[in-house]
Design goal:
The chain is of the alpha/beta class and 500 residues long. 38% of the residues lie in helices and 14% in strands. It is globular.
Length: 500
């Protein structure tokens, strides 16, 4: 659409200008720092940051209804930079000009309503938000688009030049970081650290395919993260993990899209997310808080954070009474929700800060934390995908958490839930294959339920009958005999009836 085709009262807002004054604010000592160079921890107290906008109050001068109208009509723009997370430019990075925005198709992912059978099993209406349909196949692209756009902005402004970007990963972060960094070749190069044999083959292939230098490290994600933090403290590199507050800023778009998808009616909504490194749940809380404070939504939805019993430090923290809470990292055990297998979440300070603010502004408890068993994660993952979804194992973890929350009446059957499928099902198909073949190692603590197992059947003709191959084709008579024989065998297995 041309600008002249938009309603006159919002024409001046449709293409956003870089008007924000962003700054880093420490969650520990509240010190503030300019954004003209990358920062990850406070030089004063070594606590992590959130990004704030000095002009945030001015956003309230525009009514919530007008903002809704702006965002709804902005979807019709044919400008690529504003099709993704920067559709919400004023809230996701208001200092970034259009020329610095890196857009690879991220954001604007669909919400898919569960079928009747699944809704009956959970006794609630719910949707999957398929963030696996982002360019690299996971929600991490939202934050990476923000972080890489910030890098391009700093380069365009002359604050930095050639960049080495580094990250630790359980798989999805490395895929996103390598993809987005490769778009800015040769000025940005990426290096990723992965725990040896702790990522799926599909995830390992992604950063390799994007040209990143990949280093496999003994141990688990938490060990890789310590090495990356050491690199960022001692050398001139850009950290692309969610310790980078620009990642959080981009991932807030998940909340904005959900609000828009439901016409900004959030009073009966429940958002279910896996916790992992705690960046995504922090971003989602902060996104809804920003929309609430700007009057774009009138109420804050419930948020359910879910963790496996094999990696549950956040759940353990909130299980204690408020005065007795002390965060303790845990040593993780193997989990099929591999991307969430993190025992010392970097964003834990953000979770604590934002959960408190969220509940206070809501006037009641609206953020909850669930622990689920590995068996439940695996079975709900399979159940979802056998009912029309493309959920990763973390999406199975979310569905297990929703089932548990409904059972415990934390979530009411009259509410509507949105369940996060953080990555595409194909990234974690090896867990499905191991389950079907009944070869999941014992340390996952999962029993194989025959009701879920689905394996291919090899259909062969009777002994001595010739079969086709790529090298040797059958003559017409032989091929007809082959087709008739195989057709009859398949029809018998499917209990097919002949055409009358």
């Amino acid at each position: 659409m041309k600008i002249s085709d938009f309603p006159s009262d919002i024409q001046s807002y449709i293409i956003p200008e870089p008007t924000g004054e962003l700054f880093y604010k420490c969650l520990g000592c509240s010190a503030e720092f300019p954004i003209n160079k990358p920062l990850y921890v406070c030089p004063e107290c070594e606590q992590i940051f959130l990004i704030h906008d000095r002009r945030a109050e001015s956003l309230k001068k525009i009514s919530g209804k007008t903002w809704q109208k702006i965002f709804d009509f902005r979807k019709a723009l044919n400008i690529p930079a504003f099709k993704g997370i920067y559709r919400f430019h004023e809230f996701t990075g208001s200092c970034i000009p259009e020329s610095s925005i890196v857009y690879l198709g991220e954001g604007n992912t669909p919400i898919i309503e569960a079928n009747k059978r699944l809704k009956e099993k959970l006794n609630i209406r719910f949707f999957y938000k398929n963030d696996g349909q982002n360019p690299s196949g996971s929600f991490k692209d939202r934050g990476m688009a923000s972080a890489i756009s910030n890098i391009k902005y700093l380069m365009d402004q002359g604050f930095v030049s050639d960049i080495i970007a580094v990250c630790a990963s359980t798989g999805d972060t490395s895929a996103a970081a390598a993809l987005y960094a490769s778009y800015l070749q040769p000025h940005v190069k990426s290096a990723v650290l992965l725990p040896h044999k702790k990522v799926t083959p599909q995830q390992l292939s992604q950063p390799l395919g994007s040209g990143a230098q990949v280093f496999e490290i003994p141990g688990v994600f938490d060990d890789c993260m310590k090495i990356v933090e050491s690199l960022s403290e001692k050398y001139s590199v850009v950290l692309l993990n969610s310790k980078n507050p620009w990642r959080i800023l981009g991932q807030e778009s998940y909340a904005y899209e959900i609000a828009q998808d439901f016409d900004y009616q959030m009073d009966d909504k429940v958002i279910v997310v896996p916790i992992g490194n705690a960046g995504n749940i922090s971003a989602i809380m902060n996104g809804f808080l920003k929309f609430f404070e700007a009057g774009i939504i009138k109420s804050l939805p419930k948020i359910i954070g879910v963790q496996s019993e094999h990696a549950d430090p956040v759940f353990r923290y909130y299980k204690e009474k408020e005065g007795n809470r002390k965060f303790e990292p845990v040593i993780v055990k193997p989990s099929v929700a591999q991307a969430a297998m993190i025992g010392n979440p970097v964003s834990m300070p953000r979770v604590i800060h934002l959960t408190k603010k969220y509940n206070e502004l809501a006037g009641t408890e609206r953020v909850f934390f669930m622990q689920v068993k590995e068996q439940s994660i695996m079975e709900w993952y399979l159940e979802a995908n056998q009912n029309g979804h493309i959920s990763c194992t973390q999406g199975g973890e979310c569905l297990a958490g929703l089932f548990q929350a409904v059972k415990e009446k934390i979530v009411l059957t009259s509410e509507i839930a949105v369940v996060d499928a953080t990555a595409h099902a194909l990234k974690f198909s090896n867990f499905q294959n191991l389950y079907f073949e009944q070869k999941l190692p014992k340390e996952y603590n999962i029993k194989h339920n025959l009701d879920f197992i689905n394996l291919p059947s090899l259909i062969m003709p009777d002994n001595g009958m010739p079969v086709p191959s790529q090298e040797n084709r059958l003559n017409p008579d032989e091929f007809k005999v082959f087709v008739d024989d195989i057709s009859q065998k398949i029809a018998k297995k499917l209990n097919l009836k002949g055409i009358l």
